[in-house]
Amino acid sequence: MSWFKRSDKGIVTPTKEKKETPDGFWYKTPKGDIIETTELEKNNYVTPEEGYHTRIGSKQYFEIIFDKNKYQTIAPELESGDPLNFEDTKKYKDRIVASQKKTGLKDAMEAAYGKTNGQPLVVACMDFSFIGGSMGSVVGEKIAKAIDVAIAKECPFMLITKSGGARMMEAGFSLMQMAKTSAKLTQLSAAKQPYIAYLTDPTTGGVTASFAMLGDINIAEPGALIGFAGPRVIKETIGKDLPEGFQTSEFLLEKGFLDFIVDRTKLKEKLEQVIRMFKN
Amino acid sequence: MRTYLDFEKPIEELNTTIEKTNEIGTKGSVDISTTLRELKDKLDETTKSIYANLTPWQRVQVSRHPERPYTLDYIKAITNNDFLELHGDRNVKDDKAMVGGFGSIDGQTVMFIGQQKGRNTKQRNFRNFGMANPEGYRKALRLMKLAEKFNKPIVCLIDTPGAYPGLEAEERGQGEAIARNLYEMMILKVPVICIIIGEGASGGALGIGIGDRVLMLENTWYSVISPESCSSILWRSWDYKEIAAEALKLTGKDMLKNKLIDGIIKEPLGGAHAEPEKMYKKLKTEIKRNLSKLNELDALDRIDKRIDKFCKMGVYK
Fold first, then answer.
1. Where would I find the beta strands (DSSP E) of chain A?
2. Does B30 share its domain with B170?
3. Secondary structure class of B44 (helix, strand, coil)
4. How many CA atoms does the CB half-sphere of A78 hold within 13 Å?
5. Does residue A173 contact residue B315 with C-beta atoms inside 8 Å?
6. How confident is the model at residue B151 (pLDDT cuts 50, 70, 90)?
7. Residues B64 and B43 in one domain
8. Pair (B141, B174) in one structural domain
9. B225 contact residues in A (CB cutoff 8 A)
10. Does some domain include residue B317?
11. Does position A12 have pLDDT exceeding 80, yes or no?
12. Which ipTM score applies to this complex?
């Protein structure tokens, strides 16, 4: 005997009437809860129950920060020039093209000018989805251009970091972006415009050793991995397990390298206060 | 006993033959002068041809040669031992991997700063293999500010396999310490010359590497990562270090071609360690020559030019 008995024979549902669940409709949180992605989006991509900050890109950050999602992009056309004709297991040129196709981005950084809570602001934001948010010539130049706009428009500059560090395929050029961005920040300082660094998961390597740590105020998302050397390298070097919570935002706050931690859902609100404090 | 690198075998063999010939000469009555002259010519020729065609990986090997002069060797030779070493970051401790102090070059006081490596196991540990902690970078910055206050030029000698990737280094903000130096060095009012004398590995090197003149000795390397680590990350194996060294374009010649440094200082034949006295003299001359040129500019001009130079670095379309 079967479990179910079909009462009508030959039932056929036309394809267009079939109900399907669209892709990405559900999101599984690290704890294992299943929530709807629309719910996640509404909460600035932070899981409502546990407050887990999912990794998002520049497009989403701009949407969160800028009023009515209105902004002008800065130097959106910039692309890597592959200065060293680099090739490892794959040609760097091909990696770039593949990443561009996959992400729809030109490189690992987008910059924009707009208003937040009615106040002008330049935001540069890294995209981790593009070769691990690695810093090459394009990232450096976009930061340079964004700082120029902040100086010209006499408004604060915010940089959202999310990067594994240097882009090895640009070797010396990549290293010198640390110098270049620091040089540009001295110009922003000379123009007396505030620089807000917002560190998100993950921020490591050359990015931490340059602009990420140079904010007039340094703030971070909760639970982000922030460090100079990666945890695996440190573990191998010292031959010991790392303590719980090592290199998290909370750890850095405790050690004195952050001014405060702000939840992404409260980011815009907090920015209003920060900008007002500098301005008035 | 001189240490020979794997590709220096022909040089080693010739030197052994010369020694043996000398022995024969001192023992017996055979005239060895012609043979010796011929052998020495051959040695010169062989060394020249080997060193003229060094691959990038071989240059990396020379840069790490155990007999190569280190920072304090240069400082002591250049200042004729008129060197006042200063210690401590006034905060945590004195980092032994980063040394510095006032030294006199023919009467002119200069602030010397640099990473220091050790010669034997004990010294290597003491110097932490030339890998500075945050307090090392902060000590360097303290000394630079001191130099600025008293209008003394700064010379940084760079030789490090990287900033130390340790637990306490992270706790004390390795990233912040390096970042702060990049920023502050950009706007120092006194002339700054940075010279890679051995290894120039990544942020650890750059942390004392912002200058009006950034120079590399002929047999050194400077890049974002060591060839070994690059191989392990991109090829997922340690076996591609030669190819990685090639791909990273980390030699002085390549770095100069890409306008990422300002010049190369020639080394004596066979590398700095072959004739250290010659190397010290050469470095002193170069420091003096560059300082006198930099002194022609006023402070603000120098800073503008320094900032402009670094802002121009990068290739994009």
1. 26-28, 34-36, 71-73, 109-116, 119-126, 157-163, 195-203, 217-220, 260-261
2. no
3. helix
4. 23
5. yes
6. very high
7. no
8. yes
9. 166, 168, 171
10. no
11. no
12. 0.95
